[in-house]
Amino acid sequence: ELHTRDTFTAFNRISSTEKWLYNHRQPKWHAFYSEEALSLQRKFLDHFLKGLNTGIENEPSVRLQVNENRTDFTELLTDSWPPSQVKPQRRYLNAVDGSLADAPIDATSVVSYDARTGSTDFDMELGKTTDIVGGMRLRLWVEAVGSDDMDLFIAIRKFDSAGQEVFFYGFAGANSNDVVSRGYMRVSRRELDESLSSELRPIHLHQRELLLAPGEIVPVDIEILPSGTRFNAGEKLVLTIQGHVVEPHHNLIGFGKLRNQGVHRIHTGGRYDSYLTLPVIAKSGA
């Protein structure tokens, strides 16, 4: 997770035009030592260390895997990160029926869950084959009942047309039952760096702590880590919001002492325009 996030950030900040990004979602060492990966590594190193004409300049700048499940994927060859083909699309949370709607919701509503043990889901069914490639941005209007802070954990999940969850390799391939992607946010650290944030990635200042007053409802923007996933027609994308760590969890990533107690409330509709921004590449025939 952290390697992936930092790799994409580094790629964008490298000033050289001679740079390449190779992404995969397979077991770490299996992918690194595959014939394809080794060939690309040799091309790069032989050119820049030995001065050989290896053809590395003809390789696509960005090579991404778009996964249907653990083992099946297609390659997306492009020239930038995020891919230039991506069109951000908003899906609006509706607490009345737990849906992710394609248009703003007029009526306000709220859903609550136990801050330590509970969760809430919102979902959408894909009407056409769609690739979602890149980071996502989640805007939530939230309220803490019984606390002055909130630790939020987010999961994006995929379910097939039969209602069965589809799993992926996660954290260097160490587990094989991971979700599509995840995010996390302490609400008191919600202040945005507007100069660096984008439609698909919020970046926070982390310069001060903004605790919540009783009854205060605030917007928070949560970064969901980059991923590449194909959703076929009839499959569902499920957004899970909760106050505890998303499983499976790797113990190399620690969150310290959580501040959750009481109840979390998620507000939607009207002035509380909670939404999920997706990096969408619509497939042919859409």
Largest sheet: 7 strands, antiparallel
Q: Which segments are poorly predicted (pLDDT under 50) over 5 or more consecutive residues?
A: none
The tally of strands reads: 17
- Structural class of the secondary structure composition? mainly beta
Strand content is 35-45%
Q: Tell me the overall shape.
A: globular
- What fraction, in percent, of the residue positions are helical? 10-25%
Our count of helices gives: 3
Mean pLDDT: 93
| Estimated radius of gyration | 20 Å
Describe the structure in your own words.
The protein is mainly beta and 286 residues long. The mean pLDDT is 93. The longest helix has 16 residues. The strands form four sheets. Strands 4, 5, 6, 8, 14, 16 and 17 form a seven-stranded antiparallel beta sheet that branches. Strands 7, 9, 10, 13 and 15 form a five-stranded antiparallel beta sheet that branches. A hairpin with a 5-residue loop joins strand 9 and strand 10. Helices cover 12% and strands 40% of the residues.
What descriptors fit this protein?
mainly beta; 286 residues; globular; 3 helices; 7-stranded antiparallel sheet; single chain; 5-stranded antiparallel sheet
Fold topology:
Layout: H1 2-13, E1 21-22, H2 28-32, H3 35-50, E2 62-67, E3 73-78, E4 87-94, E5 99-101, E6 109-114, E7 119-125, E8 130-145, E9 151-159, E10 165-166, E11 168-170, E12 175-178, E13 181-186, E14 218-231, E15 236-242, E16 263-268, E17 275-282
Parallel strand pairs: 1-2
Antiparallel strand pairs: 2-3, 4-5, 4-17, 6-16, 7-15, 8-14, 8-16, 8-17, 9-10, 9-13, 9-15, 11-12
